[in-house]
């Protein structure tokens, strides 16, 4: 089915990487996409694309999220893309870094879901797709203590929302990617000093011998929004990492 056709999608972190590809994929499937990000310059690369409206939205700000949802009106699909990778072990973590990751990786999704759910319920249903990761509860990854902890929580909140609202027509699923080519991954590779060595190490985690593309993840996001008999699931899309 192409359930998303003609429906309205609110997407976060659409400026680059997986979020940008996902906004384009929903638009290509015939949805009306409200593509949001804090980075307006990155967002502007989507302006003029058919079926896409762009708008600045900081998912750390509850009032901004509520105001955006209020002004958009009916929202059928929520794509929660925002997330941040923190590197290091539990011994290297600073409490402020953990608090920030809780805010951006977990509470951002709580804010958007709380804002859109009443409208979805009134309309008879809706689909929520959350960006998690294989790093977390699917598999433990070295030097990803903060990240893995928050992404495990994304899977937990996904299942909790799915369980609470399954009878009201709400579907809520999570995507768990392996390593995907994106601007922030590029930054992490550069930050390690030896770019080629860092890239080779990321590729070595992927049994398929390559990184995933944002478009491959975007396809799954659209699929999950369309998957009218699927809820509460965490879908791995990881190049064989967790075989
Ligand atoms: P990215 O990290 O390159 O881009 C993230 C986007 O989020 C940026 O455009 C940024 O401006 C936006 N953003 C940051 N703070 C924000 C805020 N407060 N409000 C609104 N937007 C904000 O993108 P990516 O690497 O494709 O990652 C996208 C999602 O996928 C994240 O949740 C990430 O954790 C998850 N993920 C990525 C990978 C990967 O390998 N790239 C793997 C697994 C999961």
From TrEMBL:
PANTHER family for the chain: DEHYDROGENASE_REDUCTASE SDR FAMILY MEMBER 6 (PTHR43477:SF4), DIHYDROANTICAPSIN 7-DEHYDROGENASE (PTHR43477)
Keyword tags: NAD, Oxidoreductase
Protein name (database record): SDR family oxidoreductase
PROSITE patterns membership: ADH_SHORT
Top-level taxon: Bacteria
Family in the record: Belongs to the short-chain dehydrogenases/reductases (SDR) family.
InterPro entries: NAD(P)-bd_dom_sf, Sc_DH/Rdtase_CS, SDR_DHRS6-like, SDR_fam
Signal peptide stretch: none
GO molecular function annotation: oxidoreductase activity
């Amino acid at each position: 089915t192409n359930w998303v056709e003609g429906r309205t999608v609110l997407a976060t972190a659409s400026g680059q990487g997986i979020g940008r590809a996902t906004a384009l994929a929903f638009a290509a499937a015939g949805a009306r996409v409200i593509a949001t990000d804090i980075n307006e310059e990155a967002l502007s690369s989507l302006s003029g694309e058919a079926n896409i409206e762009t708008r600045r939205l900081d998912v750390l700000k509850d009032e901004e999220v509520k105001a955006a949802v209020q002004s958009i009106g009916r929202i059928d699909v929520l794509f929660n893309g925002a997330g941040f990778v923190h590197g290091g072990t539990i011994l290297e973590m600073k409490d402020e870094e953990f608090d920030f990751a809780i805010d951006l990786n977990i509470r951002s999704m709580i804010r958007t879901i709380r804002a859109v759910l009443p409208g979805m319920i009134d309309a008879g249903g809706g689909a929520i797709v959350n960006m998690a990761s294989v790093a977390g509860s699917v598999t433990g990854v070295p030097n990803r203590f903060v990240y893995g902890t928050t992404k495990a929580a994304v899977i937990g909140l996904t299942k909790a929302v799915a369980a609470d609202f399954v009878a009201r027509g709400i579907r809520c699923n999570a995507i768990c990617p392996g390593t995907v080519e994106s601007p922030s991954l590029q930054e992490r590779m550069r930050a390690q000093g030896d770019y080629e060595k860092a890239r080779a190490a990321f590729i070595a985690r992927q049994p398929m011998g390559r990184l995933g593309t944002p478009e491959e993840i975007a396809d799954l996001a659209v699929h999950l929004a369309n998957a009218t008999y699927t809820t509460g699931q965490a879908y791995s899309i990881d190049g064989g990492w967790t075989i």
